[in-house]
Amino acid sequence: MPPLVDVRNVTVDYRLKAGGVHTVFKELSLTIQQGEFVCVVGETGCGKSTLLKLLLGSEHPTRGTILINGTPVLQPDRDRGYVPQKYSLFPDKTVLQNIAFGPISEASRPFCFLRPQWWRQRKQVYADALQYMRHVGLSDRDARKYPDQISGGMQQRVAIAQSLMLKPKILLMDESFSALDPNTRRAMQRLLRSIWAENKTTIVFVTHNLSEAVYLGTRVLQITQNGKLNCSEVSLDLLVPDYVRDAKGNPRQDEIDRIIREIDLPVAEPATPSEMVEVAS
Question: Which residues contact 6 (CB under 8 A, 6 or more apart)?
Answer without folding.
Answer: 31, 65, 66, 67, 68, 70
